[in-house]
Amino acid sequence: MFDKVLIANRGEIALRIHRACREMGIHTVAVHSTADADAMHVRLADESVCIGPPPASESYLNIPGIISAATITGADAIHPGYGFLSENAAFAAIVEEHGFVFIGPEPRHIEAMGDKVAAKASMQAAGVPVVPGSEDAVRDNDAAAKLADEIGFPVLIKASGGGGGRGMKVVSAPEELAGSIATARREALANFGNDAVYIEKYLAKPRHIEVQIIADSHGHVVHIGERDCSLQRTHQKVLEEAPSPALNAEQRAEIGKAACDAVRKLGYRGAGTLEFLYEDGKFFFIEMNTRIQVEHPVSEMISGIDIVREQIRVADGRPLSFAQPDIALSGHAIECRVNAEHPETFAPSPGRVTDYHPPGGLGVRVDSALYAGYEIPPYYDSLVAKLIVHGSSRNECLMRLRRALEEFVIGGIDTTIPLHQRLVADADFINGSYDIHWLENLVGGEP
User: Fold this and answer.
1) Which of 135, 139, 244, 307 has CA atoms 20 to 30 A from the CA of 16?
2) How many domains in the chain?
3) pLDDT, mean of residues 65-83
4) What's this model's pTM, rounded to 2 decimal places?
């Protein structure tokens, strides 16, 4: 097993990785910007290295700085967490070229799944259903118009090289198509350095269902059930739950097997998530994330499996510590993403945390790097905590979640805790009758 792992990330996921390493007897190295000198993961790691000033482009995206930090500290492996360089195939290759182990998939799989057009083609070839749309990136407006007419309006223009709603446009009529493609291309180029876009059918009221998989280098692949991530605002997930209230046992087994079969055919290694749109009893693959997900704790809560620990084990060449029949999913789990934002305007709210009291009790977990007196920097993502609650049933989970949200205190800044309190009290959410557009209809889209 590795003796020392460098954590190439920050915030709650850096602390999450540190905890897994500590429980495995692995030493940790924290890298950080000058803005994160007092961050919790920096305080707790065995060693820390400052790799640059506050802007992520000069610190957490600073590949030479990260490699240098791994070299001078004698790290064996590098864990990228999520975001930043976690799905950068070039970074993964550079890590391996310098003699370190990249705790994640092989660079070829990161590259293949990073291009959504290529990913859809790979999954379709593996027998996974995909949303009807273009097989390749669309460059010609006339060809795009013909395809859109064949698919039927409305259609969705999507960036091939990225996500998060950037480079994504809904087109309701033929006369809107050319302008929407041009806008999507500009956004895609600005955000991902790649202006390629593709077209697919726009589904009216789908749910966003994703399947958590883990694979080792010995041909073993398992899934840890599905997560429902349909509560989204501006294409950003807000709350996730597992299992999905929309699926039955037969559908759950069907999509889990399809995900495992596809990943096995790819020869994939590591943790990953296959994301689907689900409507009228049908699943449509949309993308695969080749990293740990923000929402992985809900899968851990219903399975008892430490996904980060398994990531580290399979990266070390070890077989999975369990087979599919060993995985017993129990109860229900919900995760609330708590952001440092105003709960109504969603304006960012960085600043000093004056008071911090996380909720506790049976079935309550808080993943956060906050502490009283911590200064939240304005340079990074606004996620500051994840409240994850487990219950023997969805109703018990909801009751426990309401109680935990009432206990959660983060003083000195605005947070989205009041938004979550509103969501879990809404009749539609309580009944599980929502889709990916429900939250934006409730609270609005762009601020």
Assistant:
1) 244
2) 3
3) 98
4) 0.91
